[in-house]
Automatic annotation (TrEMBL):
Keyword Hydrolase: yes
Family note: Belongs to the glucosamine/galactosamine-6-phosphate isomerase family. 6-phosphogluconolactonase subfamily.
Reactions catalysed, as given in the entry: 6-phospho-D-glucono-1,5-lactone + H2O = 6-phospho-D-gluconate + H(+)
SUPFAM superfamilies: NagB/RpiA/CoA transferase-like
Organism taxonomic ancestry: Bacteria, Pseudomonadati, Pseudomonadota, Alphaproteobacteria, Hyphomicrobiales
EC number: 3.1.1.31
Biological or metabolic pathway of the protein: Carbohydrate degradation; pentose phosphate pathway; D-ribulose 5-phosphate from D-glucose 6-phosphate (oxidative stage): step 2/3
A Pfam match: Glucosamine_iso
Native species: Devosia salina
Transmembrane region(s): none
Protein name: 6-phosphogluconolactonase
Functional description taken from the UniProt entry: Hydrolysis of 6-phosphogluconolactone to 6-phosphogluconate.
Top enzyme category: hydrolase
Alphabetical keyword list: Hydrolase
């Protein structure tokens, strides 16, 4: 089985343990390749994890690049911006010297030109990622692989590294790393909290089409995934 499910007593314990696991990945990548890139998720779940990781002192943060697995197409003044969240929660204190590569590259819409600009920046990332940390929505989306997404198939199969996606459940237009690019990682983590998300994960691990619950594309990819869960 490539899915390992780890359960923790509460949110602070999970945040600390996940931060330690990701910190180890970062240190190893720096030792082996001289630099480390991580891709993190936005949303309401990862705040405590960001704070725990950002406070970690024994990381050469100036050799770290932080980016996002996906972003809402809004600038950093919006409270919907995942970049804002990362900046406020993680890139403070010891982690303030890390570099941040934003997915949002300006304007009201993720046009082809805007995506090309982001892709040019992302081509500078050290490869593979040291760690990719995914979240999951109750509709079975992960990153911005939403059910009904207009470019879902491309997002799950193409090299990318990023593309635009619009979906009924997504709010504003999104940009997401593609699945093939996210799977180029030393460590792949799924961070979910609460009983409802545990049930959604159980359902996703069962039979059924990927289009209904796109997280299945990750779970069925064969890549080792470590699930971090707490009530
Ligand atoms: O930008 C985003 O919305 C995320 O990256 C997204 O994929 C998130 O991980 C899930 O929607 C879970 O979100 P919550 O943590 O808010 O439940």
């Amino acid at each position: 089985m490539t899915i390992e499910r780890r359960s923790f007593a509460d949110k602070p314990t999970l945040a600390k343990e996940l931060a330690e696991a990701v910190a180890d990945r970062i240190r190893t990548a720096i030792a082996e390749r001289g630099a480390a890139a991580i891709a993190v998720s936005g949303g309401s779940t990862p705040g405590k994890f960001f704070q725990a990781l950002g406070k970690t002192r024994d990381i050469e943060w100036d050799k770290v690049i932080v980016t996002l697995v996906d972003e809402r197409w809004v600038d950093e003044t919006s409270d919907r911006s995942n970049a804002l969240l990362v900046n406020e929660k993680m890139l403070q204190g010891p982690a303030a010297t890390a570099r941040f590569f934003p997915l949002y590259s300006g304007g009201d819409e993720p046009t082809n030109e805007a995506i090309a600009k982001t892709n040019a920046l992302m081509a500078e990332l050290p490869q593979p990622f040291a760690a990719v940390i995914l979240g999951m929505g109750n509709d079975g989306h992960t990153a911005s692989f939403f059910p009904g997404g207009d470019t879902l198939n491309a997002a799950l199969t193409e090299a990318g590294p990023t593309l635009a996606i619009r979906a009924p459940g997504a709010g504003e237009p999104r940009i997401t790393f593609t699945l093939p690019r996210l799977l180029e990682t030393d460590g792949l983590y799924l961070h979910i909290e609460g009983d409802q998300k545990a049930s959604v994960l159980d359902a996703a691990l069962g039979d059924g089409p990927v289009e209904n619950m796109p997280i299945r594309a990750v779970l069925r990819s064969g890549a080792p995934v470590t699930v971090y869960w707490c009530p």
